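Troubleshooting log. The previous structure file for this entry was overwritten by mistake, so regenerating from the original sequence record. Sequence copied from the archived sheet and checked twice against the printout by T.R.
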Amino acid sequence: MSNWIDIAALEEVPQRGARLVKTPHGCVAIFRTAGDEVFALDNACPHKNGPLADGIVHGKAVTCPLHNWVISLETGVAQGADEGQVATYPAKVTGGRILLDADFLQQRAVA
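Regenerated output below.
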């Protein structure tokens, strides 16, 4: 059974934008697509640790602001010729609130 924690109201994250959430287990970037889907990834690009929360969200991907690597919001995998992957986290919207799976965050921190 998951332990969901309330992060923010959906409206607090702009469409095609992101917010950084600092947790006891590290920083997580929360992304909102134009279709109001929400995704959560580690905030560090696999290339040179660029801040993904500062990137450009397009479709279901984010472009790193440092070197233009495109990362899938669904899988965390670098797209195109680039290779690498960032961790993804279960996120959902319930009642207009963004929730993260706290148990999953803690498991990732321990691993």
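The chain has a mean pLDDT of 91. Archived copy saved in two places this time.
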